[in-house]
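Regression check, iron/sulfur cluster case 507:
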Amino acid sequence: MTHMMHMMPGIPTHLYYVAVVTVMIISFALFVKFPGRSKDPTSYRKLDLLRWSWLDHLVKSRMVQTGLRLFLVFLFLLIILTGLFGVQDPGRNLSTILTWTIWWILLVLFILFAAKLWCYLCPWDAIATWIDKLHLWKVKPSVFSLQIKWPRQLRNIYLATFLFLVLTWLELGWGVTTKPAITAYLALLILFLAIFSAVVFDRKSFCRYGCLIGRISGLYALISPLEVRARDTEVCALCKSKDCFKGNAQGYGCPTYQYLGNMEKNTYCIMCMECLRSCARENTTINLRPFGVDLLKIHQARTDEAALVLIMLAMTSFHGLTMTPLWFSLTDRLQQGLGVGYTTAFTIGMVASLLAVGLFYLLVMATTWIMLHKELPWRELVLKNAYALLPIALFYHLAHNVMHFAMEGGKIIPALSDPFGWGWNLFGTAQYPVGPLFSIQAVWYLQVLFIIIGHVWSLYIGHRVALHLYGHHKSLKAEFPMVLAMITYSVLSLYLVAQPMEMRTSM
Ligand code: SF4
Ligand code: SF4
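Current build output:
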């Protein structure tokens, strides 16, 4: 691995901290001064994208979806093959470059703008479905599935959350991002889980409950400006057939058990487009809407989702921390002090980071709760405020990964010509001189921008949540601890991205 040192262009680093804090304070003052209309969070402007018949046909076409999925499956198989049989150099093997440097950041950008369209393309689900139906595109009954109901105890997202923690541990503690073969085994493991679920459980239970990528993207998709929804829920109320839920010859019943008549959030919609195909009343569509509106629908707050939000926030920051010299000196001290190896010291550090973020959040909430004389139930306060932290997690993820993308993303050009690192030159680019895609200064500006956007957005959502929970008179007092916490976190985030950082592949 290589250290990348940030060079702060122009002005000293501490002035960036001052600037970010100032922007946050001014933004918050503006939110307070101009609170906007206190609206029903379920009512907002929408543009029905399927009013254009060409787009309607395109979106509903099974052949288009199958064609796109075949291409993604081709890339997926390429990752498996290059990971297993190519040279085990992460800087020359296509599997590590494509998975961790390119896909990892593009996926989050994709979710930000296009919600769960990744699931529409997903190669894991594609292969599992093809095996289960023994057909590439037609609506067919399941050939192999035992159609068992997903266990009641697991009808939440704790399994996906656990898998996310395992992935983070493997990625950072075990360096999966630098190991092509392990990257391939990980991809195969997820494929095995998807196929196992398809042949044992009914519908797409793995997507609904178990897939870590699906559940993380499900929360990030609350921010996205795309949504699949019923055009008119009154029509659904009068609809006897409920084809969107039960399925018919045109489309499967919703694979994640969503009923369009009351679906309000993106979280569990995997944008498979089945309800668009099955609804005989043409009552389903894809809307373009303002960013982030689902974050205000806090009446549907859930414990498992709030826990995952906090874990995502903790793990995105932890990601940055583990690539800094500070982390290595901390784990060195732990190893020497406790007489343990790096893996144990890493695990202790990871658990400590999770606890630190969780306890810090609870402390902030407890302060609010006591300041407001325990007016609201404690659980409601803790759950409903957690969603406001999602923009911070998403934009910190982007801020962190943009560095990897800028410094190492160019390696995809020679790797495409020589995906296994065997000395091929398929497209004549094997010797392409790889350098940063953009300058370190540009990366720094982007990181500062992402951190500001994430924190200001979270401030706004936090403000709207406080207005909803406590009303105009008390909201300012209620959100004061959260605002202070977010300002502190923004400085910490900036500090982390400003540290010298280890690259995944040698430069
Ligand atoms: S979306 Fe269509 S099929 Fe589903 S309940 Fe509404 S009208 Fe019926
Ligand atoms: S059937 Fe409709 S609501 Fe259900 S996951 Fe697919 S697109 Fe979303």
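Comparison notes: The beta strands are 3-4, 47-48, 226-230, 284-288, 501-502. The chain has 20 helices and five strands. No diff flagged against the previous build.
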